[in-house]
Amino acid sequence: MFRLLYSLIFLLALPMALINLYLKGRQYPSYRTRWKEHFSLFEIPPIENSIWVHAVSVGESLAAIPVIKRLLKEYPQYSIIVTTTTPTGAERVQSLLGDSVIHLYSPYDLPWVVNRFIRKIKPKLTIIMETELWPNFIHYSRKQKVPVIVINARLSARSAHSYARLPIPTNRLLLDPVTHLACQNVADAERFKLLGAEDYKVSVTGSIKFDLQLPNNIDTKTRKIFGDWGAKHFILVAGSTHAGEDEIILSAFRRLIEQGIDAKLIIVPRHPERFDSVFELIVQRGFSVFRRSDRQRELQDEQVFLCDSMGELMYCYHHGDLAFIGGSLIDRGGHNPLEPAALAKPVITGPHVFNFSDVFRSMQQAGAASMVEESNLVSVLIELSQDSKRCKKMGVAGKAVVEANRGAVSRTVKLLHKYLK
């Protein structure tokens, strides 16, 4: 009964989903041409056996990449289908994996759509990244005898509380059809168990995001992007910022300059659709600004570098002296701090980090990250900009945290082996 009601609500909301698809298609024309994929209407070569990996957007797609590469190497007899919800996620998958996988947009979670999708790709195994527990998606995979494994599984205390308030037992709706939950840490595993997941279905494999690999060309490409820009300045990198944070960061940056600190700012908005509005905001605030996408001019001595490109956040962190992690000064739950940590960069974050609470806790305990409020952001920035020894110490500590927690990819792939015999 629940899935029937859920499917009816989903169907009623479908016009809004199509409007959203149309609006996104204005920025990503290729996305608009592929809208039928959401209804499992697509043509691909005949497939006998596949592995279906579902990610949502950029973060989940990047986390899935090392697992997918291992599966491609160890199971060449399987086609790997990667689905994403967003065009930015699709771009990351296609740029990093190319033709080695088949990318499709994820089917809408309606019974006939999901069933059609499964019949077309014939998965031997369905892998879900992190928290994408769609009722029909999971139910019909299991009904067609396809194991469903959630890897890099995480469940924040806030999400667990929301699930616990559902009127129908969560374990029957979402957790019972799941074959296994490979969790990032003990806290995530315990939350799933409290919601009704049976002990034998839950294990802790660690966070795949600790296994990130730095690009081989990171030094040469960083220099190609930035040259000597900011070589004698303190460079603050504001990564994955959201609306409401850019204003705060720009105000803090203005205060740094007013305090006589030679500073530069690299700002990287989380969502591409905000690139233009963030550019306009920077100009309105009176800063000179260079857009990464502007191929008509050279980067000179601008105060702000706007990274309005995809897949270059790590190069921005590499060029900077201090990384601020966005989505944390507003109530979005924060983003991944491990890229700057792996690059031995000191990290600061706002208080809203529930998406990565355990990672930030480990980094804070190691002295690799500092948590700030809007009220003391400027004072912390001034302090760190004048204390290079402390910044270096924080960076070294952050890199040590990353190195100490590697190995999740191997543990995850080992778990998957038993379902691919």
Automatic annotation (TrEMBL):
Record's Gene3D superfamilies? 3-Deoxy-D-manno-octulosonic-acid transferase, N-terminal domain, Glycogen Phosphorylase B
What is one term from the GO cellular component aspect held by the record?
Answer: plasma membrane
The lineage, from the top, is: Bacteria, Pseudomonadati, Pseudomonadota, Gammaproteobacteria, Oceanospirillales
Q: Which residues form the 3-deoxy-D-manno-octulosonic-acid transferase N-terminal domain?
A: 34-211
Glycosyl transferase family domain residues: 248-399
In Swiss-Prot or TrEMBL terms, this protein is called 3-deoxy-D-manno-octulosonic acid transferase
Pathway(s) where this gene product acts = Bacterial outer membrane biogenesis; LPS core biosynthesis
Q: Which GO-annotated molecular functions does the record name?
A: Kdo transferase activity
Describe the family membership recorded for this protein in Swiss-Prot or TrEMBL: Belongs to the glycosyltransferase group 1 family. Glycosyltransferase 30 subfamily.
What this protein catalyses is: lipid IVA (E. coli) + CMP-3-deoxy-beta-D-manno-octulosonate = alpha-Kdo-(2->6)-lipid IVA (E. coli) + CMP + H(+)
Which cellular compartments is it found in?
A: Cell inner membrane; Cell membrane
- Quote the function comment for this protein: Involved in lipopolysaccharide (LPS) biosynthesis. Catalyzes the transfer of 3-deoxy-D-manno-octulosonate (Kdo) residue(s) from CMP-Kdo to lipid IV(A), the tetraacyldisaccharide-1,4'-bisphosphate precursor of lipid A.
EC number(s) for this protein? 2.4.99.12
- Membrane-protein topology: Single-pass membrane protein
Source organism superkingdom: Bacteria
* GO BP field: lipid A biosynthetic process; lipopolysaccharide core region biosynthetic process
- Source species, please? Pleionea litopenaei
Q: Which UniProt keywords apply?
A: Cell inner membrane, Cell membrane, Glycosyltransferase, Lipopolysaccharide biosynthesis, Membrane, Signal-anchor, Transferase, Transmembrane
Active-site residues, as the UniProt record annotates them: 60
**Per the record, where is site Transition state stabilizer?**
130, 209
